[in-house]
Specification:
Blueprint (H helix, E strand, L loop, with lengths): L1 H24 L2 H18 L5 E7 L3 E7 L5 E8 L6 E9 L6 H4 L7 E10 L2 E10 L2 E10 L2 E8 L4 E2 H7 L6 E12 L7 E13 L1 H8 L1 E2 L5 E10 L2 E9 L3 E11 L5 E9 L3 E2 L2 E2 L4 E11 L2 E9 L5 E6 L7 E10 H8 L4 E17 L2 E18 L2 E16 L2 E8 L5 E9 L2 E13 H7 L4 E2 L1 E12 L2 E15 L1 H8 L7 E12 L2 E9 L4 E10 L4 E10 L16 E10 L2 E8 L4 E7 L2 E10 H7 L6 E13 L10 E14 L3 H11 L4 H9 L2 H5 L18 E14 L2 E10 L4 E9 L4 E10 L5 E7 L1 E2 L2 E2 L7 H11 L36
Antiparallel strand pairs: 1-2, 2-3, 3-4, 4-5, 5-6, 6-7, 7-8, 8-10, 9-10, 10-11, 11-13, 12-17, 13-14, 14-15, 15-16, 16-19, 17-18, 19-20, 20-21, 21-22, 22-23, 23-24, 24-25, 25-26, 26-27, 27-28, 28-30, 29-31, 30-31, 31-32, 32-33, 33-34, 34-35, 35-36, 36-37, 37-38, 38-39, 39-40, 40-41, 41-42, ...
Helix pairs in contact: 11-13
């Protein structure tokens, strides 16, 4: 009895303790304790700032509200039975940013999500129904558990899943857009052996061509991709059929098997690809790939890829333990060069083959790392382009070894009738050391590949190392005993019009240290001699300069211009480029003393005692100009941006005793006074255009004016003065006039180069009192001046005169009566340096 009494008391105490505990748990203090304990444990698992904003656990109901440090809300409330624990609950969650939960869920997710649903528990059965909203999509989830074990899983997406938003949500680039439908009905009583099926489908997945082009240089047609994936879960595996197709892409898999017991994968995946372009490279024929998956368990996956683009396939075998590749073998035997060229649609005819093998070990995807050893060898029987055989029984061998941080490439070949050796060490995919040796390289065959015509053999050596940014050390040398550049190639490269091929010998060398170096180059030929010395190169600062000495015995043999130039020409000086500004210093003594300086966007020209006859002989006008001298002085600012608007400075042209044949200016002026058949702009432009303007007609068309009496005569221009002031692109004639033995003509006013127009511009035929016996005002544009113009050869002179400024006179209209006679008390038209001729 005493024992029973003790047991009764003990039982009663236990009941009291339990009752007290239960009552305490449901009390405010108990709720507070539970709230703090759960909060502490949750934040230890993931520091997301989780805290309860409401916590109530009662005898029959409960209500919990939580938030994180981004004020996301999670609410759970309902009622339950304390004895059976049967529950009816509502859950509502709005997570503003899931990236905060990366540590908790193991992957980074971008964006928010919401969940609304109900949880019902009866006895040992549990049903969960919820709508999951994220990535602009809604997914309906229905899960049934029996005896607390999973039983059924239903998933639907009635309106589809937004693919672009899903990729962003999964922290992936937006490679594609479109809608994907998802449905699943699975019996998951045994998670390792589910039964049922699922479907994933889309009528249109649109690749992001802009992103693919930017990141992979891959251009796809704009047609959508249709996708259908059907999966059947049975026993302990999932059998999947994948169908995807577009105008350029087909993928088929009918036996892809995933074993859920050990997660091994077996089956074949076949893909056909066509009409896809990589930059300017287009796949001409369809490419078929077969991926054979074969594995025993999760730790031993294998895949063999067979690429069918040629008759002989390219094979790749990969070992993928835990679904992460560790090594790969790639092999291609006797690959036809002809088929490769046909495949790429390149315009070559070839015979030969290529062998390729590569071994990649120690692959690590994050961060990317691997060890590579690859060999390529080829035997080229022939390679023909435009009926020229570029190769004949040649070989090419290459060996590549290394890893992403350090890669060594060594190449040997006897292509193009030469011996070629190249060795390059790359670090972080950038060059570190480069050695190049070329012996007897046939430039004709090389240039034909680029549609150029260059003949001769080149020898070259280069050893460069310590690359960093735009800096490197090293030296180079090159020489060619005889090179021929065809006039067609010269014209293509320069945009000019060379009349003949140029033949010369070439040699040069240079040294670099930390991206700075010095080089020299000599070009020696019968028609051209060019010495480039003290060439200073600063790659880091993009600055260059060099001294040059150019000479040709007869410019006619290399003349790149339309003008009929002839005679010797020598140019010496220095050219350079720094701070994005060109600079040039040039001297020439063929026609007098010429010195040109361009520096800091400032142009100066000092040309003294230029022989008019020598210039005329050089330009092919020796029969028209027999004597006289010129002086030219210029000081201008030349801004590269808005050049005309920022053109400031002066130009001064002086001439004396210039003898012009085949035209008599005095007779022209006299004829004007008598008949008004020639306007004064004709006469002024005819002379101010210089020898080129006079040469335009060679006097041949003057007879059309009824002026045959002055043919085969000459004019002696005693003085010529043209002082032009330029301010903001406006050229003002400060002193512009010339005088023959009988006639004096002057111009005043301005020409606005910004809008190509005359500005209050006059030309006058002067008397001894500096007054204009006759004057004309010129208005309108340079290309269409409003003056009276004759249908004579003089118009051709105007065309050429204005074309010197890239302006072409197209004709004119009469502005007003062009002749104005003035009395003795006239207002002086001209007060410049040119004196009136003495009678």
């Amino acid at each position: 009895m005493k024992v029973l009494k003790i047991l009764g008391i003990t039982f009663a105490v236990i009941l009291i303790i339990l009752a007290s505990t239960i009552f305490w748990v449901f009390s405010n203090s108990g709720n507070e304790f539970l709230k703090n304990t759960i909060t502490k444990i949750a934040n230890e698992k993931a520091p997301i700032g989780l805290e309860f904003t409401h916590f109530k656990l009662g005898f029959r109901d409960f209500a919990f509200s939580l938030k994180d440090k981004q004020q996301s809300q999670i609410a759970l409330n309902g009622d339950y039975s304390l004895l059976t624990l049967n529950t009816n609950a509502q859950i509502s969650a709005v997570i503003k940013d899931l990236s905060l939960y990366e540590q908790l869920i193991g992957i980074r997710l971008n964006g928010g999500a919401s969940l609304n649903g109900e949880i019902i528990k009866k006895s040992n059965n549990l049903a969960i129904k919820a709508d999951f909203k994220a990535f602009k999509s809604t997914i309906n989830i229905d899960v049934i558990l029996e005896n607390y074990n999973p039983k059924k899983l239903f998933i639907t997406s009635k309106e589809g899943i937004d693919l672009q938003s899903l990729l962003t949500f999964l922290n992936q680039p937006s490679y594609a857009s479109g809608k994907i439908l998802l449905n699943a009905d699975l019996d998951i009583s045994n998670l390792a052996s589910p039964n049922g099926g699922f479907k994933i489908a889309s009528d249109g997945i649109f690749p992001n061509n802009t992103l693919l082009q930017k990141e992979y240089n891959l251009t796809l047609p704009k047609e959508p991709i249709k996708l259908a994936i059907n999966g059947e879960a049975k026993a302990n595996h999932i059998l999947t059929t994948i169908l995807a197709n577009s105008s350029y892409f087909q993928l088929t898999s009918k036996d892809l098997l995933l074993n859920l017991k050990d997660y091994s994968t077996n089956g074949n995946l076949k893909t056909i690809i066509n009409h896809i372009r990589f930059n300017d490279f287009t796949i001409k024929t369809p490419v078929t790939t077969n991926v054979a998956l074969k594995s025993k368990d999760i730790t031993n996956q294998e895949a063999t890829l067979t690429l069918y683009a040629l008759t002989n396939p390219i094979l790749a075998h990969l070992n993928i333990p835990n679904y992460k590749p560790t090594n790969a073998l790639i092999e291609g035997k006797d690959l036809s060069i002809k088929e490769i060229l046909d495949f790429t649609a390149l315009p070559y005819k070839a015979q030969g083959n290529i062998n390729l093998n590569a071994e990649i070990n120690a692959i690590n995807l994050t961060p990317l790392n691997y060890n590579l050893k690859a060999n390529l060898s080829s035997s080229i029987q022939s390679l023909v382009f435009n009926d020229l055989n570029l190769a004949s029984n040649n070989t090419l061998e290459a060996t590549i070894t290394g890893n992403p941080k350090a890669m060594n490439i060594e190449t040997k070949s006897d292509l193009f009738d030469s011996k070629i050796y190249a060795n390059a060490l790359l670090k972080e995919y950038s060059p570190n050391n480069i050695i190049l040796e070329l012996e007897n390289l046939n430039l004709e065959k090389v240039s034909k590949l680029l549609n150029y015509d260059i003949y001769g053999a080149l020898n070259a050596k280069a050893a460069l190392e310590n690359f960093k940014d735009s800096s490197f050390d090293g030296d180079f040398s090159l020489n060619a005993p005889e090179l021929t550049l065809s006039k067609k190639t010269l014209n293509t490269l320069s945009g000019m019009e060379f009349k003949h091929d140029i033949i010369f010998a070439l040699n040069g060398d240079g040294d670099f240290k930390q991206g700075k170096g010095e080089a020299k180059l000599n070009v020696t030929g019968k028609d051209i001699i060019l010495e480039i010395s003290n060439a200073l190169i600063n790659l880091k600062d993009n600055a260059y300069s060099a001294n040059f000495n150019f000479h040709t015995p007869n410019i006619a043999n290399i003349n790149p211009l339309k003008l009929p130039l002839q005679g010797k020409l020598t140019l010496k000086g220095n050219a350079g480029f720094a701070d994005n500004i060109p600079m040039l210093y040039l001297i020439n003594k063929n026609f007098g003393d010429l010195e040109l300086t361009l520096a800091n966007e400032h142009l100066k020209i000092d040309a003294n005692n230029l022989s008019a006859k020598k210039i005329a002989d050089f330009t092919g006008n020796g029969k028209l100009i027999k004597g006289g001298t010129f002086n030219i002085n210029t000081d201008l600012t030349l801004k590269l941006k808005d050049m005309i608007q920022n053109l400031n400075g002066f130009l001064k042209l002086q001439g004396k005793n210039i003898e012009i044949y085949s035209i008599d200016i005095d007779a022209l002026a006299n004829n004007y006074e008598k008949t008004n058949q020639i306007n004064l702009l004709d006469i002024g432009a005819f002379v101010l255009a210089g020898p080129l303007g006079i040469a335009a007609t060679k006097g041949g068309d003057l007879g059309k004016m009824g002026l045959n009496s002055i043919l085969d005569t000459k004019t002696a221009i005693k003085e010529l003065e043209a002082n032009i002031d330029l301010q903001k692109g406006i050229a003002t004639a400060k002193d512009a006039a010339f005088a023959t033995t009988k006639t004096r003509i002057a111009a005043k006013g301005a020409i606005n180069l910004n809008n190509q127009s005359f500005d209050n511009f006059y030309i006058g035929l002067l008397d001894a009192n500096n007054c204009a016996k006759y004057s004309q005002k010129i208005e309108g544009s340079l290309t269409n001046p409003k003056i009276q113009i004759t249908q004579t050869a003089v118009k051709t002179a105007i065309n050429l005169a204005t074309s010197l400024l890239d302006k072409v006179a197209k004709g004119a209209k009469t502005l007003a009566e062009p002749i104005t006679k003035q009395g003795e008390n006239c207002k002086p038209f001209y007060n410049g340096a040119v004196k009136h001729p003495k009678k």
